[in-house]
Structures are given as structure tokens and as C-alpha cells.
């Protein structure tokens, strides 16, 4: 995976997130409010799991 491919992936994520905020602003606001009630340790664990899964999926997709 090259740095250009990594940056392209980040750009796609930014575009998708922006579309979610544009299409469903109230849903996104409620989702963000709900996150504030989750314990920091759980957020770290979920964040790490999602990051590892995303990296694995990107590597698999790029390298086939």
C-alpha cells in the first residue's frame, strides 16, 4: 500500500462522513451525543478495533 493510496482512502472516508452529515444532520447529532455517555476505555477499545479492521480491509483490497 503506497502513501498515495492511503491518502486516497482517507479522502474517501472524509467524503462519506461529510455526506452523512449533509444527508442526516439530526441523526449524526444524536449519535455524537450518545457517544458522550460511553466510558473512555470502551471508546478506546472500539476505536482500536475499528482502526485495525479498517487497515486489514484496506491492505486486503489493495494487495488482493
Structure report:
The chain is an all-alpha fold. It has one domain. Helix content is 88%, strand content 0%. The protein contains three helices and no strands. Helix 1 (3-23) packs across helix 2 (25-35). The longest helix has 24 residues, at 40-63. The N and C termini lie close together (11 Å). It comes from Teichococcus vastitatis. The chain crosses the membrane at residues 6-24, 45-62. This is DUF2065 domain-containing protein. Keywords: Membrane, Transmembrane, Transmembrane helix. Pfam families: DUF2065.
Give average pLDDT, whole number.
Answer: 92
* Total count of strands: 0
Whole-angstrom Rg: 15 Å
What portion of residues belong to β-strands? Answer: under 5%
Order of helices and strands: HHH
- Poorly predicted runs are none
Structural class: mainly alpha
**Count of domain modules:** 1
Distance between the termini: 11 Å
Helix content: over 70%
Q: Let me know the largest β-sheet.
A: none
Characterize the overall form: flat
Oligomeric state of the chains present here: single chain
Number of helices: 3
